[in-house]
Amino acid sequence: MRKPVELSYRRRINLVIAHIGAHLDAPLDGVELAEIAAMSRYHFHRVFAAITGLTPAEYVFLARMSRAAEGLRNSRATVMQVALDVGFESGPALAKALRRFFGMSASEIRNAAVDPRLTLSVKETPSQRRRKESAMIPPSIIDMPAQQVLCATERGRANNDMGPAARRAFQRLFAGAEAMGVLPQVNRNIAIAPDAPRGPDDPDQRFVAGYVVDGVMPPLADGLHQETIVAGRWAVFRHVGPYTTLWQAWSRAYRDWVPQSGVALRDVPPFEHYVNEPTEVPPEALITDIYVPIA
């Protein structure tokens, strides 16, 4: 039997899914969906993805494609009308999305002998992905004082491991910290990804590389900024392995632990702490701690 807290999270996601289905003609941005789920914007998309196997943006897009195919096949509505019904601004915009998703034009979808939704290759299900993951190690619960962080922000595509953006950000951060003379004061290397992906191909998701700096912060180098990690409690999940498998630890944290833990999530972004360096150890020995803020 599922615990009441776990059911609460799942019920909130179900409320979002029902809202999406009833409002496909509306913008459906992540902030609105997070409010419906009564969750912080920093955590909503991770909880949604962990429970459903899709990000909110992916779920909305798939729902729109399915509803559009249904509208084309079950009515004589124009492509423009179907487009407006599922939240696209124009017929050509919908037609482009349909061709990209189904590999078929609107007229081909309308006249196909077999519903194209039945011919799509089946994605790996969340349960199949789950069986490939290693068992979750319970997190450490810590209280941490406020931390000052020297930061460099880059942007990258949401559908990869943010590797290029991460490398650019840390290169700029190192150069700036060296110019400021604060490298001896660096306590640890972290990264914050504060944005929810707006879609699988979102090219504008922020990656914030950070150095936690002890002592007095000197004037900032050009292109760098300062942020503060507020004091509070954190659940710390340790991941051992390459950065390309970090998604497993994030998924386990938000899918398996958060709903069952009985804790509330604070309205601040989680972050990653890179305990060792890829220049020092092989990928399978990399250690990354994921910090999830809890009340």
Report on the structure:
- This protein is of the alpha+beta class.
- It folds into two domains: 4-118, Orthogonal Bundle (Arc Repressor Mutant, subunit A), CATH 1.10.10; 140-294, Regulatory factor, effector binding domain (Multidrug-efflux Transporter 1 Regulator Bmrr, Chain A).
- The chain is built from ten helices and eight strands.
- The protein has helices at residues 4-22, 30-37, 41-52, 56-74, 79-85, 91-102, 106-111, 126-132, 163-180, 246-261; strands at 140-144, 147-156, 186-192, 205-213, 225-229, 232-240, 271-274, 287-294.
- The protein has an eight-stranded antiparallel beta sheet, covered by helices on one side.
- The chain is elongated.
- 32% of the residues are buried.
| Strand numbers in spatial order across the main sheet | 1-6-8-7-3-4-2-5
Instruction: Report the count of strand segments.
Output: 8
CATH class of the largest domain: Alpha Beta
Please give the largest β-sheet.
8 strands, antiparallel
The overall average pLDDT, rounded, is: 88
Helix run count: 10
For CATH, the homologous superfamily of the largest domain is named as Regulatory factor, effector binding domain
Strand percentage: 15-25%
Regions with pLDDT < 50 over 5+ consecutive residues?
A: 122-131
